[in-house]
Specification:
The chain has helices at 28-32, 53-62, 74-77, 111-127, 154-157, 172-187, 190-197, 229-237, 267-272, 275-289, 292-300, 334-338; strands at residues 4-9, 36-43, 84-90, 92-94, 99-101, 131-136, 139-143, 205-212, 223-225, 241-243, 259-262, 305-310, 314-320. By secondary structure, the chain is α/β, with parallel strands linked by helices. The strands form three sheets. A seven-stranded mixed beta sheet has the order 2-13-12-1-11-9-10. A four-stranded antiparallel beta sheet has the order 6-7-3-8. A two-stranded antiparallel ribbon has the order 4-5.
């Protein structure tokens, strides 16, 4: 038996006073949930939250210990060996009394720019006892022993006033000194001068996503379908088979491990507050749920499907049992379950 979970990060609206988050009737997900029930509908506490609701769920699902950050697991998918810190080149929009983290995914840093900026920043990290690596423009890492720091991932701070999301703890001052040194070196850097002349945002900061302390303990092995770098790395670290959405499925039917499908089209719209793109994400999910990969998965595992939907603070877990479809007296109103909770 291969239990299937659909992770729909960003699909659950927390609140919608303007009525902009209109859930589509008749979607493939709604049809799947016709024979369903609510397992849990929870609002996560904390101000600020330590991590997004989907990361909190993944932590429990994969047995990630406290002190290791979900977003920093990108490094495992790139072949790094712990320990390391996850870093993200970014642009802070500075106002008179605030600094906002511009969504790093919109920075569009190319490999040559990344390499030059990393070369400039490397001596400061070396002086701090860390080795800086930049295998991809959007994924940098500082290899070395942990500092006494709590960090918040960029996915949580994107578009927000960063004061509440600055690294905290006994080593916070040391991190600020290191970051200031890097920022001073980048202020007049040729890469940033060229970017500004081209109408692009300069890279004026590094975001500290968190730490990965050690390899994950061995647990049940499964199949993970995702294109999210952090989730890919988490799957690799856990020893799961990882397959992108658009690649042929591996021969997995003989093992009894779980299957996790990461339907990720809501993530960016949720971060950016793009209600139109959020609505379009439902159509992208429909296309996948009506495609050959899903049919193959369901043929091998026709039982109950768990659906985990998250919002800003909300985590809604539903269970869809196909055997309940024919019980008309138990019809499940999926749209009502997904609707924002009362204020």
């Amino acid at each position: 038996m291969n239990p299937i979970t659909l992770l729909c990060a960003g699909a659950a609206p927390d609140a919608d006073p303007a009525g902009a988050l209109r859930l589509p009737a008749g979607s493939a997900l709604q049809r799947l949930l016709a024979g369903g029930r609510i397992v849990q509908d929870r609002q996560l506490p904390g101000d600020p939250l330590p991590e997004l609701p989907e990361d909190d769920w993944l932590r429990a699902e994969f047995g990630v210990p406290a002190g290791s950050a979900i977003q920093a697991f990108t490094g495992a998918g790139l072949g790094l060996t712990p320990p390391w810190w996850g870093l993200r080149p970014c642009h802070l929009h500075l106002g008179i009394d605030h600094a906002l983290l511009t969504d790093p995914a919109q920075l569009a840093l190319d490999p040559a720019e990344s390499a030059e900026l990393a070369q400039s920043a490397a001596p400061a990290f070396e002086a701090a006892g860390l080795a800086l690596q930049a295998p991809r423009p959007e994924a940098w890492f500082a290899l070395g022993a942990p500092w006494a720091l709590q960090a918040w991932p960029w996915t949580l701070a994107s578009g927000r006033h960063v004061i509440a999301y600055q690294p905290a703890g006994p080593a916070a001052r040391a991190w600020r000194r290191l970051l200031t040194e890097v920022q001073m070196g980048w202020h007049e850097h040729p890469v940033n001068q060229a970017r500004e002349q081209a109408g692009k945002r300069p890279v004026n900061a590094l975001w500290l996503d968190g730490f990965v302390a050690a390899p994950l303990a061995a647990r049940s092995r499964g199949l993970l379908i995702t294109r999210c770098p952090a989730l890919t790395g988490l799957g690799v670290a856990a020893g799961w088979q990882v397959c992108p959405h658009d690649q042929p499925l591996p021969d997995w039917g003989s093992h009894a491990g779980p299957v996790l499908v990461d339907l990720d089209a809501w993530r960016a719209p949720r971060r950016l507050g793009d209600t139109q793109a959020w609505a379009q994400a439902w159509m992208q999910a429909d296309a996948w749920l009506e495609g050959p990969h899903w049919r193959k998965l369901r043929a091998a595992a026709p039982g109950t499907v768990r659906v985990v939907l998250t919002g800003e603070r909300r985590r809604l877990t539903l269970a869809a049992d196909p055997g309940w479809r024919w019980r008309w007296w138990r019809r499940f109103d999926a749209l009502a379950a997904l609707a924002p909770p009362p204020a």
